[in-house]
Amino acid sequence: MTFDPSIFTDHLGDIGLGFLVTLGTWSSGVLLGLALGMLIAVAQVFGNNLMRVPLRVFIELIRSTPFLVQLFLVYYGGPSFGISLDPIPAGILGLGVYGGVYFAEIFRTGFQSVARGQLEAADCLGITRLQSIWRIQLPQMLVMILPALVNMVTVLCKETAVLSIITIPELTMVLTGIGSETFAFVETLLMLCIGYLILVELCSRLGMFLETRVGRFMSRQPR
Amino acid sequence: MNSLLIPGGNVPAPTRETTREPLDEPMKTNGEQSSVLTLSKVGKSFGNLRVLKGIDLQVQRSEVVCLIGPSGSGKSTLLRSMAFLEEYDEGAIRIEGQLLGWQDTDKGRRRAPQAQINQVRRNVGMVFQQFNLWPHMTALGNVCEALRRVRKLSAGDAKQRGMAMLDKVGLAHKAEAYPAQLSGGQQQRVAIARALAMEPHIMLFDEPTSALDPELVGEVLQVMKTLAKEGMTMVVVTHEMGFAAQVADSVIFLDQGEIVARGTPRQIFHNAEQPRLQQFLQNYLDRNAFWQDAKG
Amino acid sequence: MFDWPLLQQNAPLLLGALWVTLQVSIAALVFGFVIGIVVGSLRLSPIPLLRRLGGAYIFVFRGIPLLVQLLFIYYFLPRVGLPNVSPTVAAIIGLSLAAGAYIAEIMRGGFRAIPGGQLEAAGLLGMSDAQMLMRIRVPQAVRLTLPALVNEMILLIKASSLVSVVGLADLTRTAQNLAASDYMFVQDYLMLAGFYCLINVPLAYAASLLERRLKERTA
């Protein structure tokens, strides 16, 4: 097996673009997922049964089916419902919904970890639900659920590879494409592996950094 | 008279350490308008279990009412219903004339919107057995939070009022401390300050000293006595019979969800007639008069 | 929107493909379990080098997306002298290696949760390390981590949707082929989702039942 690093320099532009697409879809998917997840969690914890039951069904559906199948439904099945999306928006939507459901479960356990009594006291004082969530629950939850959130963000990073199957030109698609063209499978696949390992490691380092910083911030609430 | 209380014994003779006249009978009701809190035929069930039955109760301005009774008698549920932390099923609870928690429509009764509930109970303050302070905020932060979010005070005004409240309960020097750094008694006093900051017309206390070590109970009771002396309307669920005897205008004995006896402290503690009340007081005395059967 | 005759026609094909998916997933769970025990034990070894080896395995096989791992297998098995490996075997190898990393972590937690006294007693009775592993540590760890292992099964079944890159006609690939020919995307992919739910929803229910029973026993 030969190893020819010039493959990279020849295609640097494409690889760079693919990397950007990976980062872009990943971060958009995470943001969408966090927002959706928070909405779902609040509806589950504070909503009435009319909301809870269909949500529970939806969550179980998403958790029981592969991400790829959900992507297919959005990208190939969407047009039948009038939603014709380009690959990248479809990918972001898929990531957002998939991640959102898992984030919702994390947020839900976080909400339930804050003692009910604290919310009752807030209730009695006239503090609204929204204010309670923002000022009392979230600050206390955050430190506890941060590891699980970081873990899920890492999972979403790895799932971006699957986006290549619906023709999104992210890192996997770009590098395997180059590999097929030049038959330089060793180099491209190796770089692909290293690339993801770097991303995953960065993610967990960032997570640890955030944990210490959030912990310090919470114990210095200015009042 | 069937007096269970031996002179020189355990429960001090009922007096009122107030500037008002000592009372030998419960305050006369002057109609619903003057009462701060009115309960009519209030009932509640948990599934098949009826925890409150036909509760009629009126609390006048500046009156101190103590609810006593064995565990499971429903006294906490009753108190929490007054703040609509428990939804009562039957009857009506009115705060200063306004119906709490429900709306009567021509289609029957339905739960009032949250804004309306908050409106009706904005003059009700509550103190919990478990304090329920917010651990990620300082004492001052806890006291000021509602002032800023609900009363929309500016940071400066809230801080001023907050410090005044902490000073009132004797904890101004602990304003920047976190709940974890405070003793149980101090935490409960912060909780009282937090409720007082909103200038309530009536304060509800749910076994405020039950979670405290005995030596810390006194400081909280002292604050509550001061409040009573200043004329605060109070409803207190408590096991502290001394406090009830000394401070209450009326004592209500609850058992298995119903009001079995009510009267002045003297009537309840000295002249108990109902057998269930006698049994309850005897149990209390047995637990607390431990030195009577001391060996040696 | 739904073409019922077509649905009835496609269902048996998908059912057959479901069987393929299940075979591969179960095989991967078994082999992954073996790998997981080995790597998990490595991680708890007193020798630092072995610990680091175990750690490296987990880092690599949990850090690289499964799709990339499967591509690696597809392109490299021929190069290391196994050109005629069937897609099924390739799929099982790929899934097992990845599953092994996750199961290793699960097992590590399970091993650590065993009260130390049990191992002391076994040692005093003269059991060898290998015997202790097989007769005490593994069964106990499995008992303690059963909900997590069932969860891993669910994850494997979902992960198997990617094995088409090594040429295996699993449930997803079959549905893709059907949709490509009859253009009934919504119907075919909803059926596909339905088949996955058929297996995974009961499994998830079983996992939560196990978890509840575990909590009751250790409470």
Automatic annotation (TrEMBL), chain A:
Cell location: Cell inner membrane; Cell membrane
Membrane spanning stretches: 15-43, 55-76, 88-107, 141-168, 188-210
UniProt-listed Gene3D superfamilies: MetI-like
Domain ABC transmembrane type-1: 19-202
UniProt superkingdom: Bacteria
Entries under PROSITE patterns matching the protein: ABC_TM1
Predominant place of localization: membrane
Name this protein carries in UniProt: Amino acid ABC transporter permease
Function: Part of the binding-protein-dependent transport system for glutamine; probably responsible for the translocation of the substrate across the membrane.
GO molecular function terms attached to this record: transmembrane transporter activity
Source species of the chain: Pseudomonas graminis
From TrEMBL, chain C:
GO terms under biological process: amino acid transport
TM stretches of this protein: 20-44, 56-77, 89-107, 144-169, 189-210
Pfam families tied to this protein: BPD_transp_1 (PF00528)
Keyword entries, A-Z: Amino-acid transport, Cell membrane, Membrane, Transmembrane, Transmembrane helix, Transport
Localization: Cell inner membrane; Cell membrane
Keyword Transmembrane helix carried by entry: yes
Molecular-function annotations in GO: transmembrane transporter activity
GO CC, one annotated term: ATP-binding cassette (ABC) transporter complex
Primary localization class, coarse: membrane
Entry keyword annotation includes Iron: no
Membrane topology: Multi-pass membrane protein
Limits of the ABC transmembrane type-1 domain: 18-211
Alphabetical list of Gene3D superfamilies matching this protein: MetI-like
Family statement drawn from the similarity comment of this UniProt entry: Belongs to the binding-protein-dependent transport system permease family. HisMQ subfamily.
Name by which UniProt lists this protein: Amino acid ABC transporter permease
Organism: Pseudomonas graminis
